[in-house]
Write a structure and sequence with these properties.
Layout lengths: L13 E2 L12 E2 L4 E2 L12 E2 L4 E2 L12 E2 L4 E2 L9 E2 L4 E2 L9 E2 L22 E3 L10 E3 L4 E2 L8 E2 L4 E2 L9 E2 L4 E2 L9 E2 L4 E2 L8 E2 L4 E2 L12 E2 L9
Antiparallel strand pairs: 1-2, 3-4, 5-6, 7-8, 9-10, 11-12, 13-14, 15-16, 17-18, 19-20, 21-22
C-alpha cells in the first residue's frame, strides 16, 4: 500500500507481476496443475508444473505435495495438468502415476478408465459395450442382420450371401440355394432371378450357361437350367 516503509514479499503459491511498485499489488495464484514454494516471485514463470503422471486441481498451491499421482486407469501425458485423463476404451493402466495407457490384448476387454484387462464373458448371441464406465462389460442382445460369437468379440454385420433374421444370433446363416443377398447386414434373402441360378450362400445370381435358360427363380445349379428348344436359342 502507498505510505508503507517497505513492501511485503509476494506470498508463496503465486506471484506479483509488479512487486515493488508504489501501488497496491494484486497477488495472482499459480494455476491448477502448478505450484510455487518460493515467496517474492514477480512472474508466472515462477510457478512450477506438476510432472507428467500427476495432476493438481488446486490453485495457489505452495508445494509439489498437491501434485497427486494419477490413479490406475488414468494418466497424464503432459506436465501441468489439473486432472488425470481416463484411459480410452481398448486401453488400460494398472499403475499409479502413469504417463500413458497400455493397449488391451486380443481377447480381453478394456472399457473407458480400465485399470486391468478383463476377460469378456458375453454369451454367444450377445456382445459387450466397450464404452462402459464401471470397469465391467454389459452384454447386449445381438441385433438382426449381425452375428455375435460372444466373449470379447464385437458384433459383426452379416456379409453378403448371409443373413441374421432374428436377434441373438451367434453366426449368420447362409442364403439357401435358389436365393441370394447382395448387401451386408441383411435379415432376409432374395429369390434368384429368371435365367440365373443361385448356389447356397450366393451374393449374386449366376447366369445360366450359353444355350440354356429358365424362367424359374429358385434354381440352385447350372444343371437345372433348361436347354433351348429346337429352332430356338438362348444367350444364357
Amino acid at each position: 500500500d502507498v505510505g508503507l516503509a517497505a513492501c511485503d514479499p509476494c506470498p508463496h503459491g503465486g506471484y506479483c507481476a509488479e512487486a515493488g511498485a508504489a501501488t497496491r499489488m494484486v497477488w495472482q495464484p499459480c494455476l491448477a496443475g502448478s505450484f510455487n514454494p518460493a515467496s517474492g516471485s514477480n512472474s508466472s514463470a515462477a510457478c512450477e508444473l506438476c510432472p507428467a503422471g500427476t495432476a493438481s486441481a488446486t490453485r495457489g498451491a505452495e508445494s509439489s505435495d498437491t501434485c497427486a499421482p494419477c490413479r490406475p486407469g488414468t494418466v497424464t501425458a503432459e506436465a501441468g495438468l489439473s486432472e488425470c485423463e481416463r484411459c480410452a476404451a481398448g486401453y488400460y493402466q494398472n499403475s499409479n502415476g502413469a504417463e500413458a495407457c497400455t493397449r488391451c490384448k486380443r481377447g480381453s476387454f478394456c472399457p473407458v478408465g480400465a485399470s486391468l484387462e478383463l476377460p469378456a464373458t458375453c454369451d454367444p448371441g450377445t456382445y459387450a459395450n466397450v464404452t462402459d464406465d464401471d470397469g465391467l462389460p454389459d452384454c447386449f442382445d445381438c441385433p438382426e442382420g449381425s452375428s455375435c460369437p460372444g466373449g470379447a468379440a464385437p458384433l459383426m454385420q452379416c456379409a453378403a450371401g448371409t443373413i441374421a433374421p432374428t436377434e441373438r444370433m451367434e453366426a449368420c446363416d447362409k442364403c439357401a440355394g435358389g436365393t441370394y443377398q447382395s448387401v451386408t447386414g441383411a435379415t432376409g434373402c432374395r429369390d434368384c432371378e429368371p435365367g440365373h441360378y443361385c448356389q447356397e450362400g450366393a451374393a449374386a445370381p449366376l447366369p445360366c450357361e450359353a444355350g440354356t435358360s429358365s424362367n424359374a427363380t429358385d434354381l440352385t445349379a447350372a444343371s437345372e437350367c433348361t436347354d433351348a428348344l429346337p429352332g430356338h436359342f438362348a444367350t444364357t
